[in-house]
Amino acid sequence: MQLKKNQLVDLTIESVASDGNGVGRIEGMVIFVPFTAPGDVLRVQLVKVLKNYCFGIVREILRPSPDRREDGCPVYHKCGGCCYRHVRYESELLWKQQSVTDNFKRLGGIELDFESIVSSGQCSGYRNKAQYPVAVDEQGHVRIGFFARRSHRVMHCTDCDLQPAFFAKILDCIAAFIEEKKIPVYDEKTHKGLVRHVYLRHAEAMNETMVCLVLRSAKLPFAGELVERLRAVCDSLCSVVINVNPSRTNVILGERCVTLFGSDTITDVLCGVKVQLSPRSFYQVNRRGAELLYQKAAEFADLQGNEVLLDLYCGAGTIGLSMAHRVKRLVGVEVVAPAVENARQNARINGTQNAAFLCDDAAGAVRTLAKEGLQPDVVILDPPRKGCGEDVVRTVAAFCPQKIVMISCNSATAARDCKLFGELGYAVTRGAAVDLFARTAHVECVVLLEKAKQRNV
Ligand code: SAH
Predict the structure, then answer these.
(1) Whose CA is nearest to atom 5 of ligand 1?
(2) Going from the N-terminus, what domains does the chain have, and what CATH number goes with each?
(3) Ligand 1 centroid to 208 CA: how many Å?
(4) CA of 362 to the centre of ligand 1 (A)
(5) pTM score, whole prediction
(6) Is 41 in the pocket of ligand 1 (CB under 6 A)?
(7) pLDDT of residue 32
(8) I want to staple 53 with a disulfide (CB 3.0 to 4.6 A). Which of 30, 77, 126, 397 is the partner?
(9) In this predicted model, what pLDDT tens digit does every residue of 159-200 receive, in sequence order?
(10) What is the 3-state secondary structure (H, E, C) of the chain?
(11) Does ligand 1 lie within 6 Å of residue 395's CB atom?
(12) Ligand 1, atom 12, residue with closest C-alpha
């Protein structure tokens, strides 16, 4: 059968792709359909027909999958943030576990029995950080929220279910302030206007909140009044910061920060470690989930007390510092300078004396450390989505550490990097997926690589 655009077809969903789309087949042709679940029998309209696969949208649910539930979000189909709101969380977890296992097998050639996926079970209000684009609609009203799916149109939404409920009050307060004071909102097409993004961060353990306004320049009219209004709506407000981003870019944060009120940082506690955070420091968005992830990493590392531990891509130092009391020496590496400052400060406030942090690109740092004669016994790798890449993998393997614990938010690049480690004498011996991003397609994984007993090189 020749499939055509806009054609209606009846389809049974068989599985779920790692981006959350349901997968069905018609005569061997794969059809991806968002917001569906295995077991759904659907009438689907084909919206894109390509050579080997199609995309469809649901026109009618002929028989619903037993995995379905109410999605409970008025903007679910428009926003693009979540893809698993319409299914039971237990099913979502199983699919995530499967996608991690499949990626390791398909992209890494690694057959591993992943342990049961770990989750805190918290499916709403878990995000401690969110960045909201700001725009003005045709009627001149300020819009704060999220980009609509696959677009740069800002959809007004201040009460996302994944954020702490009180974030909405802050966002509503800022929207009203901008509108009332006629503060110009940034327009990415003309590169004019002032207010680009609102960025909120909450340190759950210490109940401290940071409001960061990303502006094109550092001067905000009526700034003092905004601070007073924010204090009135947010009891936990500890810091109001302007981040200056003058560039024509879709990177959200600029280099420079100016504190308007309170402290330059907020402090959280993660795995018993106090963590001070600047606006530009990476910090896991789901604190309870991150604790489970780092506990799993510690279990895999199984430190005995006399090791040299290298924490590459260390951010504000969180993972290494949570293990520092179990090693002889900790060296952290991170490319973002304010995060490194946070890491050093975090070592101080936690009384950790056996830690040093280096501000450098991972590949360069590893080479420098090797020249200096560092011999790490255990290496923690926690790279961004694009993974470590060949250069870092080769230089890390050249250290010959006994163990490498790799944490990743992208199991596809993790699998690729592990494959190369495999060629360099390391075997993946344990693995677990940890869900820090309930309702979305994202999932973390952590694997243990151990030096193979005998190298057949
Ligand atoms: N381990 C930390 C941070 C992990 S996120 C934590 O769990 O909180 C990945 C980190 O890698 C970010 O802090 C990012 O700034 C840093 N990074 C990205 N590319 C890098 C590179 N090439 N070299 C060193 N660090 C890098």
Answers:
(1) 384
(2) 8-68 (2.40.50.140), 93-121+284-451 (3.40.50.150), 129-270 (2.40.50.1070)
(3) 24
(4) 9
(5) 0.94
(6) no
(7) 98
(8) 30
(9) 999 999 999 999 999 999 999 999 999 999 999 999 999 999
(10) CCCCCCCEEEEEEEEECCCCCEEEEECCEEEEECCCCCCCEEEEEEEEECCCEEEEEEEEEEECCCCECCCCCCCHHHHCCCCCCCECHHHHHHHHHHHHHHHHHHHHCCCCCCEEEEECCCCCCCCCEEEEEEEECCCCCEEEEEECCCCCCEEECCCCCCCCCCHHHHHHHHHHHHHHCCCCECECCCCECCEEEEEEEEECCCCEEEEEEEECCCCCCCHHHHHHHHHHHCCCEEEEEEEECCCCCCCCCCCEEEEEEECCCEEEEECCEEEEECCCCCCCCCHHHHHHHHHHHHHHHCCCCCCEEEEECCCCCHHHHHHHHHCCEEEEEECCHHHHHHHHHHHHHCCCCCEEEEECCHHHHHHHHHHCCCCCCEEEECCCCCCCHHHHHHHHHHCCCCEEEEEECCHHHHHHHHHHHHHCCEEEEEEEEEECCCCCCCCEEEEEEEECCCCCC
(11) no
(12) 315
